[in-house]
């Protein structure tokens, strides 16, 4: 796998990942 391909995948993942993490953090904040 080339570095460019990895960066391409990472940039695509990060957007969904950030959204998922933000949602998870928000949910934890509501529980406390």
Walk me through what this model shows.
- By secondary structure, this protein is mainly α.
- It has 1 helix and no strands.
- It is rod-shaped and about 45 Å long.
**How many β strands by DSSP?**
0
Low-confidence stretches: none
- Shape by Cα distribution: rod-shaped
**How would you spell out the order of helices and strands?**
H
Tally of alpha and pi helices: 1
- The fraction of residues assigned to DSSP E strands is under 5%
First-residue to last-residue Cα separation = 42 Å
Cα-based radius of gyration, to the nearest Å: 14 Å
- Helix proportion range: over 70%
Structure classification: mainly alpha
Largest sheet: none
Mean pLDDT: 84
Short description:
It is built from 1 helix and no strands.
Give the SSE layout.
Elements lengths: L2 H29 L1
Keywords:
mainly alpha, single chain, 32 residues
């Amino acid at each position: 796998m080339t570095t460019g391909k990895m960066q391409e995948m990472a940039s695509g993942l990060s957007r969904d990942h950030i959204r998922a993490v933000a949602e998870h953090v928000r949910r934890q904040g509501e529980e406390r």
